[in-house]
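Researcher: Next entry in the queue.
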Amino acid sequence: MSKVHVLTGMSGRYSAVLHVPVPVGSNAIGVTWKECLLSGGTKVSILPIGIGKGQITQAEMDQITSGDVIEYQWEIPTNADGSAPSISFIDALAEQEKARHFVETAVQYKYFGYVQE
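Model: Structure for this entry, 117 residues:
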């Protein structure tokens, strides 16, 4: 299950953070996605730990640092008239962003861990 954290809005966009479970599977040379992401420095969050808005719980941070969840930053556009987007639009956009980021991550880490001997 993905989790969306919408932060602030400015100049026609809202900044947001998307937490996505790391998929099962491996890259082209057999390194698991989890191992790629843990070794690649993605086990961090821009959000502070806490229980308030704009914060994540210690449990969420533990999922990130253990490599079970990856955090992506993204932007949500406002509507053409400048009004805030609907929650259903944000949810649909989050699913698109999740897919887009995974494709980018898969390309980025495709050969991660390969060593020529």
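Model: The beta strands are 3-10, 13-21, 69-77.
Researcher: Noted, moving on.
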